[in-house]
Amino acid sequence: MPAASRNKRRSPAFPNVRWFENFSKIWNRAHGVIFSNELLDAMPVHPFVWNAEQRRWEEMGVSTENELFVWTRLPNAMTAPPELPDGLLDVLPDGYVVELSPDAIQWWRGAVSALAQGRLMTIDYGGTLEEMLSPGRTSGTLRAYTEHRVSNDVLANPGGQDITAHVNFFEIQRAGEAAGLKTNAFTMQSQFLTEISRGLWAQRGLWPQNQVRQFQTLTHPEHLGRPFRVLIQSR
């Protein structure tokens, strides 16, 4: 939607809300908090598969076969392949899949450029470099969801399911620090919310039962407490 159209449709209830097409419009002007929730995991990704025999990464693209979308290995990569230590590549199994998201890193760098003073914060699915390269995750992290049901076939039912991939927080954190930000916290959602709640409980006492159940869903390791990570950086 054009900026002019959005300004005309500004809600009278929120007169101070302003829309910007991109971070360049507010470069080095933001004082406060830039916050995102489940944004980076929705950015486009480039899947790479490891060819152990030829010792090289091959990017995966999408083609068609019998009127269906299928994966195919591209003759030439569209983006730079993963950079991993030689010692790790020596033991990496053939067919191991890693996803890269240059768009997520670019978005984070844009947010960094807009932040004059304050904090840059995100809550999202993801993990460290070691977790992203887990031996039990040979097929990568790209997944599809339909009505809360997970599927590994992200090419099925085009437009009818949500597609997501875990955020490589190692790369995101490194991008922020390279631009001069300080990392204040990188932790699990369960630990982050528990610390906040401890202070609230000390001031106001325990919550009603319905709020306690919501809190348990957000912090339980079998629900949302462990898969979600919180990264906070500041200038």
| Class derived from helix and strand content | alpha+beta
SSE order in H/E notation? HEEEEHEHEHEEEEHEHHE
Unreliable runs: 1-8
Number of strands: 12
Give the averaged pLDDT, no decimals: 87
Computed Rg: 21 Å
Number of helical stretches of at least 4 residues: 7
Tell me about the biggest sheet?
5 strands, mixed
Strand content: 25-35%
Please give the alpha-carbon distance between the first and last residues: 31 Å
The gross shape turns out to be: globular
How much helicity do the residues have?
25-40%
Could you characterize what this model shows?
28% of the residues lie in helices and 31% in strands. With 235 residues, it is an alpha+beta fold. The strands form three sheets. Strands 1, 6, 10, 11 and 12 form a five-stranded mixed beta sheet that branches. A four-stranded antiparallel beta sheet has the order 4-3-2-5, with no helix packed on it. The protein has a three-stranded antiparallel beta sheet with strand order 8-7-9, with no helix packed on it. A hairpin with a 2-residue loop joins strand 7 and strand 8 (149-151). Helix 3 (102-114) runs parallel beside helix 5 (169-178). The radius of gyration is 21 Å and the shape is globular.
